[in-house]
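thought: user wants a sequence for this fold. calling inverse folding tool.
action: design(structure=
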């Protein structure tokens, strides 16, 4: 049953140039077939072409209740507010937004993404008038602010840094780009607001705005992440490190 796939892979390892050309052609045809048949993959490719210099994580896969410890902490700390405002930056197909709406049913939640197809999927699923979905380049997002909590989960990363061992100068996702986005989000978070960031290629603590924040204390805030970590000069400094995921913006700011 698996004879043909094995033959194809062996052709890719062959020293015969014709077999290697055939292998690359078969792989290219397979990628084209997936592009045509799968709208999610098609959207990822199109988004990367259109927004190459703006996009961070290209992968659009997500899941419900992906960060329960952080969601529960947000729920506890915002429980006193009658209608907290929450931003999910890089919301993909909306799973994080819809999950947070269950934790905080009275919250106004805005999901933002760069992928138009993902935003369409969010709109199709949405039956809650307290939830909105915006493109990151839209005037509406540029003008919105005053959030009580901001989530950036698995957004500020490039899979190529892990999968293919590429460096930031090769992918274009440098620390300067990361810090510019963090600075923009900081401006949208009110004093006393919560900032959640996880699975990032850079630590929030390295940014200049981090001096205006205090790490929250609760079980599960500091986790060991086995992933490349880069410094302010976008140099690799660790293959795994302790990652602090939640902060509060100092009220004196």
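)
observation: tool returned 253 residues.
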């Amino acid at each position: 049953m698996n004879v043909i796939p094995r033959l194809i892979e062996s052709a890719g390892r062959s020293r015969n140039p014709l077999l290697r050309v055939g292998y690359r052609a078969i792989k290219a045809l397979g990628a084209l077939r997936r592009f045509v048949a799968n709208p999610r993959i098609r959207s990822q490719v199109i988004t990367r072409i259109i927004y190459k210099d703006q996009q961070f994580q290209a992968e659009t896969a997500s899941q419900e209740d992906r960060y329960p410890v952080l969601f529960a902490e947000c729920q506890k700390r915002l429980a006193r507010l009658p209608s907290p405002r929450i931003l999910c930056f890089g919301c993909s197909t909306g799973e994080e937004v819809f999950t947070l709406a269950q934790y905080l049913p009275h919250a106004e939640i805005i999901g933002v993404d760069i992928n138009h197809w993902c935003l369409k999927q969010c709109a199709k699923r949405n039956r809650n008038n307290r939830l909105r979905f915006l493109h990151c380049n839209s005037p509406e997002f540029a003008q919105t602010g005053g959030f009580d909590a901001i989530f950036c989960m698995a957004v500020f990363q490039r899979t190529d840094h892990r999968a293919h061992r590429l460096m930031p100068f090769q992918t274009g996702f440098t620390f300067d780009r990361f810090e510019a986005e963090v600075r923009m989000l900081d401006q949208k978070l009110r004093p006393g607001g919560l900032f959640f960031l996880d699975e990032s290629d850079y630590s929030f603590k390295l940014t200049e705005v981090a001096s205006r924040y205090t790490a929250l204390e609760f079980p599960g805030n500091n986790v060991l992440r086995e992933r490349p970590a880069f410094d302010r000069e976008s140099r690799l400094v660790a293959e795994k490190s302790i990652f602090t995921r939640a902060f509060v913006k100092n009220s004196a700011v």
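thought: summarizing for user.
answer: Here is the designed sequence. The mean pLDDT is 87.
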